[in-house]
């Protein structure tokens, strides 16, 4: 069995989120990442406070779809 490193050094302790319910998505925006599904799931959490940070980029179609879903 092989372990492929992430290409980064992971610190011994990882800081916790500054905001309760913070969700961070940092990746290429591609249909297989299913960002619209994430947005739909978060939209159903009406009784819980959350904050979403989307980082990354994708093609124009994917960006348009995500921006439309956020509106």
Query: What is the terminal-to-terminal distance?
Result: 45 Å
Q: Order of SSEs, N→C?
A: EHEH
Rg, nearest Å:
15 Å
Structural class: alpha+beta
Number of strands: 2
What is the spatial order of strands in the main beta sheet? Answer: 1-2
Largest sheet: 2 strands, parallel
Shape: extended
Estimated share of beta-strand residues = 5-15%
Query: Average pLDDT, to the nearest integer?
Result: 83
Number of helical stretches of at least 4 residues: 2
Low-pLDDT residue intervals, each spanning 5 or more residues: none
- What portion of residues is helical? 25-40%
Describe this structure in words.
Helix 1 (35-43) links the parallel strand 1 and strand 2. Helix 1 packs parallel to helix 2. The N and C termini lie far apart (45 Å). The protein contains two helices and two strands; from the N terminus they run E-H-E-H. Strands 1-2 form a two-stranded parallel sheet. It has helices spanning 35-43, 60-70; strands spanning 22-26, 51-55.
In brief, what are we looking at here?
The protein has 71 residues and is an alpha+beta fold. It has helices spanning 35-43, 60-70; strands at residues 22-26, 51-55. The protein is 28% helix and 14% strand.
Offer a few descriptive terms.
two-stranded parallel sheet; alpha+beta; 71 residues; extended; 28% helix
Question: How is the topology of this model organized?
Answer:
Blueprint: E1 22-26, H1 35-43, E2 51-55, H2 60-70
Parallel strand pairs: 1-2
Helix pairs in contact: 1-2
């Amino acid at each position: 069995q092989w372990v492929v490193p992430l290409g980064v050094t992971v610190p011994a302790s990882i800081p916790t989120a500054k905001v309760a319910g913070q969700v961070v998505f940092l990746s290429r925006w591609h249909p297989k990442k299913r960002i619209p599904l994430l947005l739909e799931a978060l939209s159903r959490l009406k009784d819980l406070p959350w904050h979403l940070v989307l980082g990354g980029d994708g093609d124009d179609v994917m960006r348009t779809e995500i921006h439309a879903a956020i509106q």
